[in-house]
Amino acid sequence: MNDSLRSIATIMKDINSVLIYPHINMDGDALGSCSALCLALRSLGKKAYVMISEPVPKNLDFLECGCTTTDDSVIEDVELSLMLDCNSSNRIVGREAAFERGRLKGCIDHHAVGVTDIKFDFFRSEPKSAATGEIIYQLIRNLGVEINLDIANCLFAAITTDTGNFQHNNTTKRSHDIVGHFYQVAGFDSKAISALIYDRQSKEALMMEGKILSALEFHADGKVAVGAVTQALLTECHCTMDEAEGMIQRIMSIDGVEVGALFKETTDNIRVSLRGKYYANVAAVATVFGGGGHIKAAGCTFNTPLATAKEQLIPELVKAVKK
Amino acid sequence: MNDSLRSIATIMKDINSVLIYPHINMDGDALGSCSALCLALRSLGKKAYVMISEPVPKNLDFLECGCTTTDDSVIEDVELSLMLDCNSSNRIVGREAAFERGRLKGCIDHHAVGVTDIKFDFFRSEPKSAATGEIIYQLIRNLGVEINLDIANCLFAAITTDTGNFQHNNTTKRSHDIVGHFYQVAGFDSKAISALIYDRQSKEALMMEGKILSALEFHADGKVAVGAVTQALLTECHCTMDEAEGMIQRIMSIDGVEVGALFKETTDNIRVSLRGKYYANVAAVATVFGGGGHIKAAGCTFNTPLATAKEQLIPELVKAVKK
Question: Model pTM?
Answer without folding.
Answer: 0.88
